Amino acid sequence: GGWQKDILEKNKCGVVAWQKTITETVNELEAFLSSEQDYNLACINAKKLALNDFSRDKLASDLEHILKLNS
């Protein structure tokens, strides 16, 4: 689990295999990859997540803000 699982589930941008059997994971992946709608939505959501939460500029700005608060 952990934070990666939480991010994937919250943002609907992938398949989580945590605490699932190999068979369950394979079945879920097959269904996910077979659904063009689900796959495309996950791709869009993953890109939004990357740009909004994990862009280098945003992370640098966040760090700069934190450092200013603590100085």
Any overview of this molecule?
It contains four helices and no strands. The chain starts with a helix and ends with a helix. It is mainly alpha-helical and 71 residues long.
Helix coverage percent = over 70%
Number of helices: 4
What can be said about the biggest beta sheet?
Answer: none
Distance between the termini: 35 Å
Class by alpha and beta content: mainly alpha
Shape: elongated
- Determine the mean pLDDT: 95
Low-confidence runs: none
Question: Gyration radius, to the nearest Å?
Answer: 16 Å
Q: SSE order in H/E notation? A: HHHH
Number of strands: 0
Percentage of β-strand residues = under 5%
Task: Itemize the secondary structure elements and their pairings.
Layout: H1 2-11, H2 22-34, H3 36-53, H4 56-69
Structure described in brief:
The chain is mostly helical and 71 residues long. It has 4 helices and no strands.
Question: Keyphrases for this structure?
Answer:
71 residues; mainly alpha; 77% helix; single chain; 0% strand
